[in-house]
Amino acid sequence: MTNIPTPDRIVAVTAPRSWSLGETPWAGAGPLPPRYRVIVDNDFSGDPDDVFQLVHHLLSPSVDVRLVVGSHLSEDDPFDPGPDTASHAVLVAREVFARLGLADHDRIVLGAQAALPDTSTAVDSPAARAIIAEAMREDTDLPLFYAAGGGLTDLASALLLEPAIASRLTLVWIGGPEHEGLATPPPGGSAIEYNLAIDVAAAQVVFASEATIWQVPRDAYRRCLVSFAELRARVRATGPLGAYLHDEALEILRGAVEHSGRGAGEAYALGDQPLVLLTALQSPFEPDPSSSEYVVMPTPAITAEGTYQPVEGARPMRVYTGFDTRMMFEDLYAKLAEHAAWQRAGGS
Hints:
The chain is α/β, with parallel strands linked by helices and 348 residues long. Helices cover 36% and strands 16% of the residues.
């Protein structure tokens, strides 16, 4: 599991230089104006691939990260059995901001601590209210992406509280099982895909809404593998932030060994990284995630068992099937190296 920091530990974290969102002082010339707004929603106290995604998104100037939602895990999750996993997620996000030297802690908001009780009852939270406020803004015409790497409780709650937000955002979601005809489940795969299992009712609400969905199902996010040799050479070697990211991932590998009683291999899935690729790393002209592959299909309903059910006349959705992993990972490594070099210069 991700190492949950205490408030005192977060305060003790110091970076040689500080900065604010909207700045890229390590990149030389001033950044171009952002192309999109993004709400990041993830269960940061779970598998640390979401911490890699958060760092990568925050270092990407083409998106304006408006909110970082700390969301909950399933009850008794092996990564963080809880309780209060959403609060733990907020603590992890705050530590990431501190390690980056990033001052904008007011962007981090607390999500619900538990799943929806049913498909008609919202779980009110600071995150749900902040999501509504951001989606309903009238002072900007920048499109809004909702980049979710865990369960969908807070988005579903926001939709139940204010259905009008559905037409004002695009959900990019890492979650859901394989679609028949596109892929088969992995050997020994769980009956309900991990992120969907966090809150099945929430996914039912979101898929039944009018929100535009770009889905990254299990077969697609499992392809986002990096080796630990790669993480040692391209992440840990960059400096303190890279060492922190590497060590969090290595802890997961050690935990897998203890759990299975056998070797866990030498690769790690950065399965939330497509959230950055599909929002921040689009083509410059006629912008779109043009280097990744997807199919368009009618949006299905989600059953209580975590499967898909066809819906006649449903709105279309994108289902991503493959990614430009070269650009996705090389961009992460380059941004970590640039940021680390800038921080080192400030401490010299």
